[in-house]
Amino acid sequence: MFQRIAILALLLLLPLSAARIKLYMKGGGDLIVTEYRIEEDRVHYYSTERSQWEVIPLELIDMERTREEERKAAAWREEREAENRAIRQEERRARTELHDVPLEDGVYFLDGDKVAPVPQSDVVLNGSKKRAFLQVIAPVPVLPGKTTVDLEGKESKFAVAEARPMFYVRLEKISRMGVLRMRDKKDGRRAQVIEKLKATGESFEEQDDVELFRQQLAPSVYKVWPVEPLAPGEYAVYEYTPGEADIRIWDFSYGGGTTAPAPQPAAP
């Protein structure tokens, strides 16, 4: 954002500092000038090429085209100035919003004018609480085949009433971050499936992602919200490093907690 503002500022300064204007000739070509004035049947102009005042008969200048191009240039500058003002206003608003985000790492739900922390969820890997606990201490190597990442219980204890809830995410380490929809399973909810190829050792993560708007308020601080209203169901904000099986989850429920059915494995 800051780089974009700097570029726009530079673009706005260039026309002002150089003040270059094209006087279009009726016979073709143009004169590059910094300013001009019309006096009776003559055009007095300051030549950028020779750095001096010169005079040319008015009848040789295509004033209609010259003025039209001047109007276009003025409109372009006005557009850029408006865009620059909008970016600066958004930057000021983002700085103001940043004061509302707690300093501790975590995910926070924007509930009206209040900010509520979303509890981090305990995950279950391949149905094993012990394996999930070990992963908190140090990432557990993923064996070839499929590893499932689940949450216990059919519904989250953290419920939101908005169909397009907004969250602040402040995490010192962010690799891949988003919002996913949970898949329903008999004794809980499925967040992610990790498949590791035996031949290459590559890992691929699969989850039901929600399309999001993302706004960076500061390094490692984001504001995220769904592009489209959520369907009732179970969801989670997540962060993980691809290939590391280290997903972190902050689950929430919207509209009664109806989860999508978990995909069934293909028949052999």
Shape: elongated
Strand content is 35-45%
Task: Return the average pLDDT rounded to an integer.
Answer: 82
What composes the largest sheet?
6 strands, mixed
Radius of gyration: 30 Å
Key terms:
3 helices; 5-stranded antiparallel sheet; 6-stranded mixed sheet; disordered N terminus; 268 residues; alpha+beta; disordered C terminus
Folded structure, characterized:
- The protein has 268 residues and is of the alpha+beta class.
- The chain folds into two domains: 2-98, no CATH class; 106-261, no CATH class.
- It is built from three helices and 20 strands.
- Strands 7, 8, 12, 13, 14 and 20 form a six-stranded mixed β-sheet that branches. Strands 6-5-10-17-16 form a five-stranded antiparallel β-sheet, covered by helices on one side. A five-stranded mixed β-sheet has the order 9-19-18-11-15, with no helix packed on it.
- A hairpin with a 5-residue loop joins strand 1 and strand 2 (30-39).
- Helix 1 runs antiparallel to helix 2.
- The longest helix has 36 residues, at 63-98.
- The chain is elongated, with a radius of gyration of 30 Å.
